[in-house]
Please model this.
Amino acid sequence: MHRKAFTLIELLVVIAIIAILAAILFPVFAQAKLAAKKTAALSGVKQLDLAIIMYTGDTDGQFPLGFEGSSQDSGHTWVGTDLWAQRVQPYTKSIGVFEASADSFAGQAPLVGTWAGVGISFGVNSYYGNWCCSPNWNSGFQLRGPMGVGNNSYPDGHNDEGNGWLMNSSLNESALTQPAATILAAQKNGADIAQWNTAYGSKWGCSFNCQGNWSNFAMGGTIGGPNIDVTNNVGGWGPQAIPNAKSTFYSSMGNGNPLQYEFGVNGAVSASYSGQSVFAYVDGHAKSLIPSTTNPDPVNQPQNNQWDGLR
Model:
Protein backbone atom coordinates (compact mmCIF):
# COMPACT_ATOMS: atom_id res chain seq x y z
CA MET A 1 0.00 0.00 0.00
CA HIS A 2 1.46 3.34 -1.03
CA ARG A 3 1.61 6.23 1.51
CA LYS A 4 -0.20 9.28 0.23
CA ALA A 5 2.11 12.29 -0.26
CA PHE A 6 1.29 15.81 0.90
CA THR A 7 -0.59 17.81 -1.63
CA LEU A 8 0.58 21.23 -2.72
CA ILE A 9 -2.29 22.85 -0.86
CA GLU A 10 -1.36 21.06 2.37
CA LEU A 11 2.25 22.18 2.05
CA LEU A 12 1.16 25.76 1.45
CA VAL A 13 -1.08 25.61 4.52
CA VAL A 14 1.83 24.39 6.67
CA ILE A 15 4.09 27.10 5.30
CA ALA A 16 1.41 29.71 5.94
CA ILE A 17 1.01 28.52 9.55
CA ILE A 18 4.79 28.70 10.10
CA ALA A 19 4.86 32.19 8.63
CA ILE A 20 2.05 33.32 10.90
CA LEU A 21 3.78 31.88 13.96
CA ALA A 22 7.03 33.56 12.96
CA ALA A 23 5.26 36.90 12.51
CA ILE A 24 3.80 36.53 15.98
CA LEU A 25 6.91 35.26 17.75
CA PHE A 26 9.71 37.30 16.15
CA PRO A 27 8.49 40.63 17.62
CA VAL A 28 8.16 38.90 20.98
CA PHE A 29 11.73 37.67 20.73
CA ALA A 30 12.89 41.15 19.70
CA GLN A 31 11.09 42.72 22.64
CA ALA A 32 12.58 40.17 25.00
CA LYS A 33 16.05 40.90 23.63
CA LEU A 34 15.52 44.65 24.05
CA ALA A 35 14.22 44.11 27.57
CA ALA A 36 17.35 42.12 28.39
CA LYS A 37 19.52 44.95 27.05
CA LYS A 38 17.61 47.45 29.19
CA THR A 39 18.03 45.28 32.28
CA ALA A 40 21.78 45.05 31.64
CA ALA A 41 22.04 48.82 31.10
CA LEU A 42 20.05 49.43 34.28
CA SER A 43 22.48 47.21 36.16
CA GLY A 44 25.43 49.06 34.63
CA VAL A 45 24.19 52.53 35.50
CA LYS A 46 23.36 51.30 39.01
CA GLN A 47 26.95 50.10 39.46
CA LEU A 48 28.25 53.45 38.22
CA ASP A 49 25.93 55.15 40.69
CA LEU A 50 27.40 53.15 43.57
CA ALA A 51 30.95 53.78 42.33
CA ILE A 52 30.34 57.54 42.34
CA ILE A 53 28.87 57.30 45.84
CA MET A 54 32.02 55.48 47.00
CA TYR A 55 34.12 58.19 45.35
CA THR A 56 32.25 60.92 47.24
CA GLY A 57 32.77 58.92 50.43
CA ASP A 58 36.50 59.38 49.95
CA THR A 59 36.25 63.10 49.11
CA ASP A 60 34.11 64.37 51.98
CA GLY A 61 31.01 64.34 49.80
CA GLN A 62 32.48 66.23 46.84
CA PHE A 63 31.43 64.87 43.46
CA PRO A 64 34.06 64.36 40.75
CA LEU A 65 34.24 66.77 37.85
CA GLY A 66 32.25 65.65 34.84
CA PHE A 67 34.93 67.03 32.57
CA GLU A 68 38.19 68.88 33.14
CA GLY A 69 38.16 71.41 30.32
CA SER A 70 41.49 73.13 30.86
CA SER A 71 44.86 72.66 29.23
CA GLN A 72 46.22 76.09 30.07
CA ASP A 73 47.23 76.55 33.70
CA SER A 74 46.22 73.31 35.39
CA GLY A 75 48.33 70.87 33.39
CA HIS A 76 45.31 68.99 32.08
CA THR A 77 45.23 67.90 28.48
CA TRP A 78 41.74 66.37 28.18
CA VAL A 79 43.07 62.87 28.77
CA GLY A 80 44.17 60.87 31.80
CA THR A 81 41.94 61.84 34.73
CA ASP A 82 40.10 64.58 32.89
CA LEU A 83 36.72 62.87 32.71
CA TRP A 84 34.52 61.45 35.43
CA ALA A 85 34.98 57.99 33.95
CA GLN A 86 38.69 57.88 34.88
CA ARG A 87 38.04 59.15 38.39
CA VAL A 88 35.29 56.61 39.02
CA GLN A 89 36.71 53.57 37.21
CA PRO A 90 38.96 52.44 40.10
CA TYR A 91 35.79 51.96 42.15
CA THR A 92 34.25 49.68 39.50
CA LYS A 93 37.28 47.51 38.64
CA SER A 94 35.80 47.12 35.15
CA ILE A 95 35.31 49.22 32.06
CA GLY A 96 32.39 47.01 31.03
CA VAL A 97 29.92 48.77 33.34
CA PHE A 98 30.44 51.95 31.30
CA GLU A 99 29.12 50.18 28.19
CA ALA A 100 25.56 49.44 27.06
CA SER A 101 24.90 46.77 24.44
CA ALA A 102 22.33 49.01 22.73
CA ASP A 103 25.17 51.40 21.87
CA SER A 104 27.11 50.21 18.83
CA PHE A 105 30.09 52.41 19.83
CA ALA A 106 30.38 50.85 23.32
CA GLY A 107 33.78 49.28 23.89
CA GLN A 108 34.97 50.28 20.42
CA ALA A 109 38.21 52.06 19.62
CA PRO A 110 37.59 55.80 19.13
CA LEU A 111 37.57 57.22 15.64
CA VAL A 112 40.19 59.74 16.76
CA GLY A 113 42.67 57.10 17.96
CA THR A 114 43.15 54.68 20.83
CA TRP A 115 44.61 57.45 23.02
CA ALA A 116 41.01 58.58 23.55
CA GLY A 117 40.18 55.37 25.40
CA VAL A 118 37.17 53.25 24.52
CA GLY A 119 33.56 53.97 23.71
CA ILE A 120 31.29 54.43 26.74
CA SER A 121 27.51 54.77 26.90
CA PHE A 122 26.68 57.02 29.85
CA GLY A 123 26.79 60.72 30.64
CA VAL A 124 26.66 62.42 34.03
CA ASN A 125 24.43 65.29 35.11
CA SER A 126 26.41 68.48 34.50
CA TYR A 127 23.39 70.75 34.25
CA TYR A 128 24.14 74.47 34.33
CA GLY A 129 21.15 76.68 35.08
CA ASN A 130 20.52 80.35 34.48
CA TRP A 131 23.01 83.19 34.87
CA CYS A 132 23.80 83.75 38.54
CA CYS A 133 23.56 85.44 41.06
CA SER A 134 21.85 88.39 42.72
CA PRO A 135 22.57 91.21 43.36
CA ASN A 136 25.30 91.72 40.75
CA TRP A 137 24.47 88.91 38.29
CA ASN A 138 28.08 88.56 37.23
CA SER A 139 28.90 85.05 38.39
CA GLY A 140 28.24 82.93 35.29
CA PHE A 141 25.92 80.02 34.60
CA GLN A 142 25.34 78.19 37.87
CA LEU A 143 26.08 74.47 38.22
CA ARG A 144 22.91 72.80 39.45
CA GLY A 145 23.78 69.20 38.61
CA PRO A 146 26.28 67.21 40.70
CA MET A 147 29.26 67.17 38.29
CA GLY A 148 30.32 70.14 36.20
CA VAL A 149 33.08 71.41 33.95
CA GLY A 150 36.43 72.47 35.40
CA ASN A 151 37.12 75.61 33.41
CA ASN A 152 36.36 78.45 35.77
CA SER A 153 38.08 80.49 38.47
CA TYR A 154 35.65 80.10 41.35
CA PRO A 155 37.01 79.05 44.75
CA ASP A 156 35.77 75.47 44.71
CA GLY A 157 39.10 73.70 44.44
CA HIS A 158 39.20 73.68 40.66
CA ASN A 159 40.87 76.88 39.51
CA ASP A 160 41.47 76.32 35.83
CA GLU A 161 41.11 78.54 32.80
CA GLY A 162 39.56 81.38 34.75
CA ASN A 163 37.12 82.59 32.12
CA GLY A 164 34.36 82.60 34.72
CA TRP A 165 31.38 81.86 32.49
CA LEU A 166 30.52 78.66 34.36
CA MET A 167 29.95 78.95 38.09
CA ASN A 168 31.38 75.96 40.01
CA SER A 169 32.91 72.73 38.74
CA SER A 170 31.35 70.17 41.07
CA LEU A 171 28.92 70.19 43.97
CA ASN A 172 29.03 68.62 47.40
CA GLU A 173 26.33 66.08 48.13
CA SER A 174 25.24 68.19 51.10
CA ALA A 175 24.14 70.95 48.69
CA LEU A 176 21.61 68.76 46.88
CA THR A 177 18.13 69.27 48.23
CA GLN A 178 16.40 66.19 46.76
CA PRO A 179 18.93 63.36 46.32
CA ALA A 180 16.21 60.77 45.65
CA ALA A 181 14.82 62.91 42.83
CA THR A 182 18.05 64.27 41.30
CA ILE A 183 19.61 62.48 38.34
CA LEU A 184 23.25 61.50 38.62
CA ALA A 185 23.76 59.77 35.25
CA ALA A 186 21.85 58.60 32.18
CA GLN A 187 22.50 56.70 28.98
CA LYS A 188 24.20 58.76 26.28
CA ASN A 189 25.28 56.58 23.37
CA GLY A 190 28.41 57.35 21.41
CA ALA A 191 26.57 56.11 18.33
CA ASP A 192 23.87 58.76 18.77
CA ILE A 193 26.49 61.49 19.14
CA ALA A 194 28.24 60.34 15.98
CA GLN A 195 24.99 60.32 13.98
CA TRP A 196 24.15 63.80 15.23
CA ASN A 197 27.64 64.95 14.24
CA THR A 198 27.21 63.64 10.71
CA ALA A 199 24.06 65.71 10.28
CA TYR A 200 24.85 68.84 12.30
CA GLY A 201 28.43 68.82 13.58
CA SER A 202 29.98 71.02 10.93
CA LYS A 203 27.26 73.63 11.41
CA TRP A 204 28.02 73.89 15.13
CA GLY A 205 31.80 73.81 15.00
CA CYS A 206 32.28 70.22 16.16
CA SER A 207 35.31 68.16 15.25
CA PHE A 208 36.30 65.01 17.11
CA ASN A 209 34.53 66.29 20.23
CA CYS A 210 31.36 65.07 18.56
CA GLN A 211 32.43 61.80 16.98
CA GLY A 212 31.34 59.68 19.93
CA ASN A 213 31.43 59.21 23.69
CA TRP A 214 34.94 58.16 24.74
CA SER A 215 36.29 57.23 28.14
CA ASN A 216 39.37 59.49 27.98
CA PHE A 217 38.32 62.45 25.90
CA ALA A 218 35.85 65.19 25.12
CA MET A 219 32.35 66.12 26.20
CA GLY A 220 30.39 63.00 25.28
CA GLY A 221 30.28 61.88 28.90
CA THR A 222 28.41 64.91 30.24
CA ILE A 223 24.87 66.29 29.85
CA GLY A 224 25.24 69.98 30.60
CA GLY A 225 22.03 71.60 29.51
CA PRO A 226 21.22 74.44 27.13
CA ASN A 227 23.69 76.93 28.59
CA ILE A 228 26.69 74.92 27.41
CA ASP A 229 24.84 73.44 24.46
CA VAL A 230 25.14 74.12 20.77
CA THR A 231 21.54 75.30 20.83
CA ASN A 232 22.86 78.34 22.70
CA ASN A 233 25.52 78.94 20.02
CA VAL A 234 28.44 77.94 22.22
CA GLY A 235 29.43 75.25 19.71
CA GLY A 236 32.16 72.67 19.66
CA TRP A 237 31.02 70.56 22.63
CA GLY A 238 28.45 68.43 20.86
CA PRO A 239 25.04 67.31 22.11
CA GLN A 240 24.50 68.51 25.69
CA ALA A 241 20.78 69.30 26.05
CA ILE A 242 18.91 67.96 29.06
CA PRO A 243 15.42 66.65 28.23
CA ASN A 244 12.65 69.21 27.96
CA ALA A 245 9.12 68.02 27.25
CA LYS A 246 8.21 71.51 26.01
CA SER A 247 11.19 71.91 23.67
CA THR A 248 10.55 73.16 20.14
CA PHE A 249 14.17 73.21 18.95
CA TYR A 250 13.43 70.28 16.65
CA SER A 251 11.09 72.42 14.54
CA SER A 252 13.64 75.13 13.77
CA MET A 253 17.02 73.44 14.19
CA GLY A 254 16.38 69.77 13.49
CA ASN A 255 14.27 67.70 11.13
CA GLY A 256 10.87 68.42 12.66
CA ASN A 257 10.81 65.17 14.65
CA PRO A 258 10.09 65.80 18.35
CA LEU A 259 12.03 62.62 19.21
CA GLN A 260 15.14 63.66 17.29
CA TYR A 261 18.34 63.22 19.26
CA GLU A 262 19.56 66.45 20.90
CA PHE A 263 17.03 68.85 19.36
CA GLY A 264 13.97 66.83 20.39
CA VAL A 265 12.18 66.58 23.72
CA ASN A 266 14.57 63.91 25.03
CA GLY A 267 17.62 66.12 24.52
CA ALA A 268 20.99 64.35 24.49
CA VAL A 269 19.73 61.34 26.45
CA SER A 270 19.59 58.15 24.39
CA ALA A 271 16.10 56.63 24.44
CA SER A 272 17.25 53.16 23.39
CA TYR A 273 14.53 51.00 24.92
CA SER A 274 11.15 51.55 23.27
CA GLY A 275 11.35 55.26 24.02
CA GLN A 276 12.89 54.85 27.46
CA SER A 277 16.38 55.35 28.86
CA VAL A 278 18.06 54.32 32.11
CA PHE A 279 18.81 56.79 34.91
CA ALA A 280 20.81 56.70 38.14
CA TYR A 281 19.94 58.98 41.05
CA VAL A 282 22.06 60.64 43.70
CA ASP A 283 20.63 58.50 46.51
CA GLY A 284 21.79 55.30 44.80
CA HIS A 285 18.68 53.96 43.05
CA ALA A 286 18.22 53.53 39.31
CA LYS A 287 15.22 53.19 37.02
CA SER A 288 14.06 53.41 33.41
CA LEU A 289 11.97 56.34 32.21
CA ILE A 290 10.92 58.25 29.13
CA PRO A 291 13.59 60.99 29.20
CA SER A 292 11.21 63.91 28.64
CA THR A 293 9.34 63.03 31.84
CA THR A 294 12.42 64.03 33.86
CA ASN A 295 11.80 67.67 32.92
CA PRO A 296 8.12 68.03 32.02
CA ASP A 297 7.83 71.83 31.96
CA PRO A 298 10.91 73.88 32.91
CA VAL A 299 9.00 77.17 32.89
CA ASN A 300 5.85 76.25 34.81
CA GLN A 301 7.13 73.24 36.77
CA PRO A 302 10.78 73.95 37.64
CA GLN A 303 10.30 71.94 40.83
CA ASN A 304 9.93 68.81 38.69
CA ASN A 305 13.18 69.21 36.78
CA GLN A 306 15.10 66.17 37.99
CA TRP A 307 18.36 67.54 36.55
CA ASP A 308 18.29 70.49 38.94
CA GLY A 309 19.80 69.37 42.24
CA LEU A 310 19.32 72.77 43.90
CA ARG A 311 15.62 73.19 43.24
